[in-house]
């Protein structure tokens, strides 16, 4: 079935302006497995825009050859609200400037309404249970508020993704290597995707109570599996994952085509596209716990002088950076050294040089959980 492109009109609070989502649909509606992929929910994060440009071309070729077995929904951009937020020529797309907060936080937790809908309707038949849960998820999304523009955007995106078997949310960091966030209940698929991408970092979270977009999709499956003591494969029915495509300026045809081909291979391995994906590449990392990430913060305001960079192997106690007090009376006493609190791999750091107290500076993936990290807080310290 040829690719279908749909324009979904969204409301706009601004007279004389309009917003929309562009949705590319491949395969037969309702076919399984179903994949959903979008980019730039944080609208100032751009590598995914070019990756999906290349992935669309690859999918168009596969579609012409009749190789789309399941259903694929692809949104070249996910956040027209954020894409329209510019201040003095710069994109400001991480937070909703009208008070809606971080675009990738605060997503609806559908576990409770779905649990009420399925209670008493589950059985020992996994196939029937999957259908019952999926139908309840679709119904719960249909009941979501659309009272303002960000609520409408969230309800619309979840309406496209909530019944998918695979949900891929493309982001990037400031200065970074490739890295992947997934849930530990879905580690098998996470490891496959990470190997196809060649990512040197896979971060696993144990809780399903977080509020980003991927968690809104996979979270109910994981929690319902635990609540109703269902078979473990129920928790794998929606593999939701966040892929961080390096740093914000890592935008090139070479990198984007490389990443698009990796996503295409993964979709092929998962039976959504017909073909031979080739042998699974060697793993570039082992999975590490999300609460094992050392999130370095600035102890005061000052200028950062870096001694380590993304891609470096780090030992606990390593000298990562100096913070220079630009108001110091004695230049010899102006520097505060910042050290690593874990052994691992630095996968991201801040690009800004002048920082404020409390600003996140770097992220190091380590194997051991860190006492100062809070469960379920994502990468907040």
In words, what does this structure look like?
- There is one protein chain.
- The chain is an alpha+beta fold.
- It has two domains: 4-285, Zn peptidases (Aminopeptidase), CATH 3.40.630.10; 292-366, RNA polymerase II/Efflux pump adaptor protein, barrel-sandwich hybrid domain (OB fold (Dihydrolipoamide Acetyltransferase, E2P), Beta Barrel).
- It is 27% helix and 27% strand.
- It has eight helices and 22 strands.
- The strands form five sheets. Strands 1-2-4-3-9-13-11-12-14 form a nine-stranded mixed beta sheet, with helices on both faces. Strands 10, 15, 17, 20 and 22 form a five-stranded antiparallel beta sheet that branches. It has a four-stranded antiparallel beta sheet with strand order 19-18-16-21, with no helix packed on it.
- A hairpin with a 2-residue loop joins strand 5 and strand 6 (90-91).
- Helix 6 (187-197) runs antiparallel to helix 8.
- It is globular.
Describe what is shown at a glance.
The protein has 381 residues and is of the alpha+beta class. The chain has helices at 47-64, 80-83, 111-118, 126-142, 149-161, 187-197, 213-227, 253-269, and strands at 4-10, 19-27, 34-39, 71-75, 86-87, 90-91, 95-96, 101-102, 166-173, 175-176, 179-183, 202-205, 239-247, 287-289, 293-297, 302-306, 313-314, 319-324, 335-339, 344-349, 354-355, 360-366.
Descriptors:
381 residues, alpha+beta, OB fold (Dihydrolipoamide Acetyltransferase, E2P), 2 domains
């Amino acid at each position: 079935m040829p690719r279908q492109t749909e324009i979904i009109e969204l409301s706009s609070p601004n007279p004389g302006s309009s917003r929309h989502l562009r949705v590319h649909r491949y395969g037969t509606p309702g076919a399984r497995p179903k994949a959903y992929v979008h980019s730039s929910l944080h609208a100032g994060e751009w590598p995914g825009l070019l990756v999906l440009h290349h992935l669309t071309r690859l999918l168009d070729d596969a579609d012409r050859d009749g190789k789309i077995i399941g259903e694929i929904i692809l949104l070249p951009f996910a956040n027209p609200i954020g894409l329209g937020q510019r201040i003095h020529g710069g994109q400001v797309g991480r937070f909703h400037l009208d008070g809606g907060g971080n675009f990738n936080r605060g997503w609806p937790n559908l576990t409770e309404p779905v649990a009420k809908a399925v209670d008493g309707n589950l059985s020992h038949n996994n196939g029937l249970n999957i259908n019952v849960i999926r139908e309840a998820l679709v119904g719960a999304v249909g009941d979501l508020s659309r009272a303002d523009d960000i609520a409408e955007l969230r309800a619309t995106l979840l309406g496209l993704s909530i019944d998918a078997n695979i949900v891929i949310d493309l982001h990037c960091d400031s200065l970074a290597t490739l890295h992947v966030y997934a849930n530990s209940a879905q580690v098998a698929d996470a490891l496959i995707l990470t190997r196809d991408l060649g990512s040197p970092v896979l971060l696993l979270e144990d809780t399903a109570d977080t509020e980003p977009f991927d968690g809104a999709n996979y979270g109910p499956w994981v929690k319902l599996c635990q609540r109703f003591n269902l078979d473990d494969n129920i928790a794998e029915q929606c593999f939701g994952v966040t892929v961080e495509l390096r740093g914000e300026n890592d935008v090139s045809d070479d990198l984007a085509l490389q990443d698009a081909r990796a996503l295409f291979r993964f979709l092929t391995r998962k039976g959504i596209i017909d073909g031979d994906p080739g042998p699974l590449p060697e793993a570039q990392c082992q999975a590490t716990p999300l609460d094992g990430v050392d999130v370095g913060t600035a102890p005061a305001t000052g200028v950062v002088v870096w001694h380590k960079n993304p891609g470096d192997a780090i030992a606990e106690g390593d000298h990562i950076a100096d913070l220079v007090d630009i108001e110091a009376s004695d230049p010899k006493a102006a520097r505060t050294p910042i050290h690593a609190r874990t052994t691992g791999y630095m996968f991201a750091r801040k690009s800004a040089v002048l920082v404020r107290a409390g600003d996140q500076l770097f992220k190091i993936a380590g194997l051991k959980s860190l006492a100062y990290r809070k469960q379920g807080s994502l990468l907040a310290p």
